[in-house]
Amino acid sequence: MHAKNRAFAALLLGMLMAQLDTTVVVAALPALQADLAAGTAVAGVTTAYLVTVTFATLVLGRLGDRHGRRAVFTGSVLVFAAASAACAAAPDIATLVAARAVQGIGGSGLVVTAMSALGEMFDRDQLIRRAGWQTAVFALASVGGPPLGALLVAGPGWRWIFLLNLPLCLIALAIGFRGLPTGTGRTPPLRPAVRAMFSDRTTRRAVVVTALSGLALFGTFTYVSLAVALIGATSALLTAMTAGQLVTSASFAAWARRWPDLPAWGRLGCASGAVGLVLLALAPHAGVAVLVPGLFLAGAAFGLTASAYTLLVQTTAAKEVLGASMGVLAFARQAGGVVGTAGLGAVAVLCTGGFGSPGLTIAFACAALAMAVALAVTPREAVDLKTSNTAR
Fold first, then answer.
1. Left, alpha or beta for 61 (phi > 0: left; psi -120 to 50: alpha)?
2. What percent of the chain clears pLDDT 70, i.e. is strictly above it?
3. Is 18 helix (H, G, I), strand (E, B) or coil?
4. Is 185 helix (H, G, I), strand (E, B) or coil?
5. Burial 301-330, CB ≥16 within 10 A → b, else e
6. Helix axes 124-154, 288-316, angle to 10 degrees
7. Coil/strand/helix, residue 180
8. Under a CB-based contact definition with an 8 Å cutoff, are residues 262 and 308 in contact?
C-alpha cells in the first residue's frame, strides 16, 4: 500500500476512535455508575470529553500549521492512548472524569489533524473521491458506538471500552507515520492568521452554516428519540436517519464528480434538513408516516452538509492556516450542537412546560428555522473541480 494511502487509513482510524469514544460510553454509564458509586457525577464522563474535544480543536489545528501534521497526530495518538489507559484503570469517578478530559484533548487532535492533513495531502478531485469515507466514519461511530458499548459491558466489562483503544492507537501510528505531512507552514502570528482564515467569503459562510446545521441537526438528536417514543414507534425507526446519512455519504463522491458545484450540494443539504425538521415537527401529531421521511431527510442533510462544507474549507482555506481553519469549522459544528441541545430544550420547556407533543414540535420547528437561515447564508460561488488548479 502506498504511504499516502496508509496515512489516509491511519487518519480515518484516528477519527473513528475519537468519534466512537463519544458514543460508545453512553451504553456503559449505568454500569459505571454502579461500579464506581458515581451517582449524578456519572454525567461528567461524557461532558468532560465533549468539552475538551470541542475547545481543543482551535489550539491543535493551529499547532498542526506550525509544527506539521505528523507531529500533532503522533502526539494526539499518544495522549489518547495514555488517557485511555488511565480511564481503564480509574479507581473512582473523579479519576475517570479527569482522564476523560485528557482523552478529549487527544481525540480533538485526531479529528482536526485528519481534516487538515487530508486537505494538505490531496487535491480537490482526490478529496471528492475520498469524502464519503470521512462521513461514513462518523456514521459508523454514531450507529456502532452504543451497541459496541453494550456488548463490552455485558462481556468483559466497561473498562475494555478504553483498553481496546490501545492496540488501535499502535496500528494508527504504525501504518500512518511515514505518509503524514512533516513540513511546517509559514504560519503568521495569531492576529494575521485569524484575518487570513476569514478573509475568504466562502470560508466565513461555511463556518456560519456549519454552526447553524450543528445546532439544528446535532441539537435535535436527543429529541428525536423522545419523538419516536412519544408516538409509540419502535426505536428501530431511528435507522431511517442513519440510512439517509449513509446513502448520501456513500454516493456523494460519485455525484459530486459529475456535478462539481460544492456550494450547490451544501444548499441541497440545508434544504433537505429544513424539510426534514419540519416533518419531524409534525410527527408527534401525524405519526410514523411523517416521522420516517423526516428522519431520512435529516440524516441526508447531515451527510451532505458535513461533506460539502468540509471540502469547501479544505480546498479554499490558505495552506498556512489550513489546520486553524479546520479547527474553527470543527468547533463551529460541535459548539452548535451543544448550544442546540441546551437551547432547543430550554425553548420547549419555557413555551410548553415539557417535552410532550407541543414542546417537541416547537423544538423541531426552531431547528428547521435555523436550517432555513443556513440556506440563506450558504456560499453561492460555484467550485468547479474540472477547471480548478488546487493540487497541493
1. alpha
2. 91
3. helix
4. coil
5. bbbbbbbbbbbbbbbbbbebbbbbbbbbbb
6. 130
7. coil
8. yes
Count of all residues that appear for the chain in the document: 392
Reading the block at residue 386, the C-alpha cell is: 474540472
Question: pLDDT by residue (tens digit) across 93-148?
Answer: 999 999 999 999 999 999 899 888 888 888 877 887 777 677 678 777 776 777 88
Q: Which of 144, 165, 157, 173 is nearest to 18 (CA)?
A: 165
Distance CA 316, CA 322 (A): 9
Report helix, strand or coil for 257.
helix
3-state helix, strand, coil in the chain (%, to 5): 85, 0, 15
Contact 247, 295 (CB under 8 A): no
pTM (2 decimals)?
Answer: 0.79
Closest listed residue to residue 224, CA positions, set 294, 147, 130: 294
- 40 touches 91 (CB < 8 A): no
User: Could you report the per-residue pLDDT of 224-274, keeping only the tens digit for each?
Assistant: 878 888 887 776 677 788 788 878 877 777 787 788 788 888 999 999 999
Task: List phi, psi (to 5°) of 76.
Answer: -65, -40
- Give the tens place of pLDDT for each residue, 274-301: 999 999 999 988 888 999 999 999 989 9
CB atoms within 10 A of CB 27: 20
What is the separation of C-alpha 235 from the centre of its chain, rounded to a whole number of angstroms?
22
Helices then strands, counting H and E runs in the chain, come out as 16, 0
Annotate 125-174 with DSSP letters as a single string. Answer: HHHHHHHHHHHHHHHHHHHHHHHHHHHHHHTT-TTHHHHTHHHHHHHHHH
Q: What is the DSSP letter of 392?
A: -
Cell output for 102: 485528557
